[in-house]
Amino acid sequence: NGAHTEYVSTRWWRAPEIYLNEKKYNEKVDVWSVGCIMAELILLKPLFPGKDTIDQLNKIFDIIGTPDPTTIQKICTAEASAYISQMDPKPKRDFNELFGFKYDPLTGTIISGISTEGKFIKKNR
């Protein structure tokens, strides 16, 4: 797998590693996109409706939390790492709170690509 373009999918569904300048991505970015689309179908509105790249990353971090330092080193360029490191850490939000109801186990499995710890790292999706 060679380097790919950073312009992939609609901004609201784009995986965070693409914003964080990872050039070697695979089908796991599509898993993220499907999770965003499923959440949008449940919420009847976009989960991460960012206006630009920085706003998009902030909306993602507001919901799934900021990545830990080890994850930042694995997926970020030096520039992206510096940006995230200067941010106040944000905790992961509870999806039951976010959706306003307790979702069933199947729905939880479907959207887990964007909701559980470690999902910044594509191989864990």
Multimerization status: single chain
Mean of the pLDDT scores? 77
- Which series of helices and strands comes N to C? HHHHHHH
CATH architectural name: Orthogonal Bundle
Unreliable parts: none
Q: Supply the number of structural domains.
A: 1
- What is the CATH superfamily classification? Transferase(Phosphotransferase) domain 1
Helix/strand class: mainly alpha
Overall, the morphology is globular
Instruction: Give the distance, in angstroms, between the N- and C-terminal Cα atoms.
Output: 18 Å
What is the number of strand segments? 0
Report on this structure.
The longest helix has 16 residues, at 28-43. It contains seven helices and no strands. 24% of the residues are buried. It has 125 residues and is an all-alpha fold. The protein has a single domain, classed as Orthogonal Bundle (Transferase(Phosphotransferase), domain 1), CATH 1.10.510.10. It has helices at 16-19, 28-43, 53-64, 69-75, 78-85, 95-99, 105-115. Helix 2 (28-43) packs across helix 7 (105-115). 50% of the residues lie in helices and 0% in strands. It is globular.
